[in-house]
Design goal:
Radius of gyration of chain B: 20 Å
CATH class of chain B: Alpha Beta
Shape of chain A: globular
Helix content of chain B: 25-40%
Number of strands of chain A: 33
Largest sheet of chain B: 5 strands, mixed
Number of domains of chain B: 1
Number of strands of chain B: 6
Structural class of chain B: alpha+beta
CATH topology of chain B: 60s Ribosomal Protein L30, Chain: A
Helix content of chain A: under 10%
Oligomer: heterodimer
Strand order of the largest sheet of chain A: 4-3-5-6-7
Largest interface: A-B, 84 and 65 residues
Strand content of chain A: 35-45%
Order of helices and strands of chain B: HEEEHEHEHE
Distance between the termini of chain B: 68 Å
């Protein structure tokens, strides 16, 4: 994707220095260990000594301690960007004495930056950035830091789409993941809702009421052209593109019930996957494209279900401990499903993709995973409206996204 | 069972619900929990596994009309305004005391051929966006099925869902929510009759 290019500097993909961090977790639910990231424990015995090497910190969802870093030499927007980017990916800022890593550099005309490990006095990263804006250079530097320290690709140069409310109407916008550089996508002067990125492409699906009817549109952002994708009788709702972009899941009422359907990206081969007068809503895909997960109701129980994308028997995904799950989103690394549970307020929760004990993270709704399978963007109700926020699931660190436009921003979809 | 961090708010919520049910009135700002009002306890939450597909309830659904079937027809929101049907929280079942309104709409359609009607399904804000869009459509479909049962041709009844995007009244209390959980009738008149 054009917007994810790396200023021509190239990211070297080498796992950074291993960090053990603090693995002591507060008491967990009985027998439940939620490892957010697969950790490879290698026991190396040498001369009677046993050394424990952890290739990546064990990240317990909602209970992981952030990585302490100290930063100096930056000012203004560049400092703000670096702090924001790192905070929402599990870093925290502290004094040089308490820091695990030192970040230094300057932003006189362009960004130069270094990453040092004070414990063995080694320089892990030293780079200068040119081109684009200072803001973009800062994002590129934070991506380099994240890659070096965690071995994971940073998310600072990714995009989001969302619904922007303006009076009674809403439109679709896209923006940088932090809300900056927003661009209006639709100008329909009606309701336009539920945007969904096509993975790996500059394209969206969404529902617009433009033709006096809720229809699903396909919108190519690189050419600015769009076409009606689904305009069946009743309502055409909640489109979700498959990971390879070849299929689209959606909720249709063409046959008299609101059911889950799937078809090819050219609109052909429409298949009805569920046949029930009960609820089906907000489909999403497993990263291998084999399953579609959705919110359902079976008799009295609301639950998340998954059904083979080729058709078959739905299976419940247990979300133990959380009532009324809706709006699932399956993490790109196939480990988690994030969703909204309804208590007195809406809560962002995660559960292992196979189902099981759920973990409640923060107040909010409609989560969408970042490509790093770690940060979530979600909608938070505030006053009478809504704002978008970012949540680093392992550390529960939260930051609001800059308001994109209009009175309320909601229904975020992360480009991945 | 040992309480975990996330279980505490749940228990609090349950306790709150039980307390609220006890005095038979919800304190303002408290959202009653759908399918969770003390009935489903933690242990009742079903485990992973296959579920029964396509549970049959009532009719099998009448196919919706082509979206272009009333494309250039006139729209009149005032004629059947008094017959707006109100729903219970998180429900698409037409309450008995609301059914006379649907019957009145059926009578109107019987007496005013070839006019048609568009049923708009709406929801209150207590529900997630796309869940509510589905719920709004189910409300509209429930009204459509009732009109069909009363003898109206399916081709004369269109449905549309607005979810919670077009509230009738602003506000964040039960008084506002009750007015927003609704099915609205828009009379459609053929182009020649405008």
């Amino acid at each position: 994707m054009k917007d994810n290019e790396n200023l021509g500097l190239g990211l070297k993909s080498r796992a950074g220095r291993e960090s053990c961090g603090d693995e002591t977790s507060p008491p967990l639910a009985r027998g439940v260990v939620l490892a957010f990231s697969v950790c490879l424990l290698t026991l190396i015995s040498a001369r009677g000594q046993t050394e424990l090497q952890v290739s990546k910190a064990i990240e317990v969802v909602g209970q992981t301690k952030p990585i302490p870093v100290s930063m100096s030499g930056f000012s203004g927007e560049v400092a703000q960007v670096l702090e924001f980017d790192l905070y929402v990916q599990g870093f925290t800022f502290t004094s040089p004495e308490a820091a695990q890593y030192l970040i230094t550099g300057s932003n006189n005309g362009s960004v130069t930056g270094q990453l040092r490990d004070p414990h063995n006095n080694s320089t892990m990263l030293s780079k200068a950035y040119t081109g684009a804006s200072l803001r973009r250079q800062a994002h590129a530097f934070s991506d380099d830091i994240v890659l070096k320290v965690t071995g994971r690709k940073g998310i600072a140069q990714t995009k989001i789409a969302c619904k922007v409310q303006n009076g009674a109407n809403s439109e679709i916008y896209i923006a940088d993941f932090d809300g900056h550089n927003a661009q209006m996508v639709t100008r329909d002067d009606t309701l336009v809702v539920a945007p969904c990125w096509v993975p790996g492409r500059l394209a969206l699906y969404y529902t617009s009421y433009k033709l006096n009817h809720p229809d699903i549109f396909y919108h190519d952002l690189s050419t600015g052209t769009r076409r009606v994708f689904a305009r069946y009788g009743g309502s055409n709702m909640s489109p979700a593109a498959s990971p390879d972009g070849s299929q689209v899941a959606m909720i249709l009422s063409k046959d008299g019930w609101t059911d889950l359907y799937v078809c090819q990206a050219d609109g052909t081969d429409l298949r009805r996957l569920t046949k029930s007068p009960q609820d089906e809503s907000s489909p999403c895909w497993s990263p291998d494209g084999k399953w579609i997960c959705y919110a359902a109701k079976d008799k009295e129980h609301r639950s998340l279900c998954k059904i083979p994308a080729s058709g078959g028997t739905p299976q419940r995904i247990a979300t133990t401990g959380t009532p009324s799950p809706t709006e699932p989103d399956w993490s790109p690394d196939n480990k988690w499903i994030a969703y909204t549970a309804q208590y007195r307020n809406f809560e962002i929760c995660v559960v292992p993709a196979g189902g099981g004990q759920a973990t409640l993270l923060v107040d909010g709704e409609d989560p969408s995973w970042a490509p790093n399978s770690r940060t979530l963007i979600y909608t938070r109700r505030q006053g009478g409206g809504t704002v978008l926020s970012l949540l680093d699931a392992p550390t529960k660190q939260v930051k609001d996204v800059s308001r994109i436009s209009g009175s309320s921003n909601s229904q975020p979809s992360w480009a991945r | 069972m040992k309480l975990t961090k996330f279980a505490k708010p749940l228990v609090l919520a349950l306790a709150f619900t039980v307390a609220a049910a006890g005095c038979h009135k919800h304190p303002s700002g408290v959202t009653p929990l759908p399918g969770y009002a003390g009935k489903n306890k933690l242990e009742d939450v079903p485990p992973s596994g296959p579920i029964r597909p396509g549970e049959e309830v009532g009719s099998t659904g009448t196919p919706s009309n082509d979206p272009n079937s009333h494309a250039n027809w006139g729209e009149h929101t005032d004629i059947l305004q008094a017959d707006t049907v109100y729903f219970a929280f998180d429900s698409s079942v037409i309450k008995e005391d609301e059914k006379p309104k649907v019957a009145a709409v059926a009578d109107y359609l019987k007496g005013n051929t070839p006019n048609a009607v568009k049923v708009e399904g709406h929801c209150d804000e207590r529900g997630t966006a796309e869940y509510n869009r589905s719920l709004g459509e189910r409300r509209a479909l429930a009204i459509r099925e009732e009109l069909i049962r009363l003898g109206i041709a399916p081709t004369r009844v269109d449905t549309i869902s607005y979810g919670f995007d077009r509230p009738a009244v602003q506000g964040h209390d039960e008084a506002a929510w009750a007015k927003n959980r609704r099915g609205v009738f828009v009379v459609l008149t053929p182009p020649t009759a405008q």
